[in-house]
Amino acid sequence: MPQQEAALLELHYLPSIQYFSKLAHYPTVYIEQQEHYQKGSYRNRCHIVGANGPLRLSVPLQQGKNEQQQIRDVRIAYKEPWRQQHWQSIRSAYGSAPYFDHYADRLSPFFTSRYDTLFELSWALLQAICGMIPLSVGLLLTETYIAEAPGGIIGLRDTIHPKAHRGKPDPHFLPAFYPQVFEEKHGFLPNLSILDLLFCTGPQAAIILENSFIEP
Known about the structure:
Elements: E1 6-10, H1 17-25, E2 28-32, E3 45-50, E4 53-58, H2 82-94, H3 100-107, H4 118-132, E5 138-141, E6 153-155, H5 183-186, H6 194-201, H7 205-211
Parallel strand pairs: 1-2, 1-6, 2-5
Antiparallel strand pairs: 3-4
Helix pairs in contact: 1-7
């Protein structure tokens, strides 16, 4: 099958390997910026793995009816020192990973800078990590909300979800193996945040992402 022209995804915080396998495959990916926020999704959370097993990192949001808010209006809460906590968790999990020192200085500023909205933070991180891997994907923001993706664009919104029963089937993803920091203790844990792949494999990350995309 010839490679599709484009895909459509919502924006996640430090997205999963499954998410990035789409960015590695499609030359153009539209990021939805006209939707409403959805609670319980990857929009404000990710999963890494540390010495004690999988760990969820969640960006706290200001109180309000986020579910009814336009995604670009959802604001981050700073009552708790979550930025320091996230970076400390990342450093503790991956400080001994082969490529942590190579990328740490480029990632740590995101956990000292103050972003007003969740979208601003996640969009900046997404672009930065695409440059670190690196991926040649063209990232574009949607201009209007369309319920069904138009022709030539593969609609993947809400395909990738922390709860499998709330996601959609994805026959094009099969996580490729790579060595992990705590593999001897926990076994291979697939589809963690892209940080796990980046810190563990460095320049091989793009190849592993490509190998995780399955053609029909």
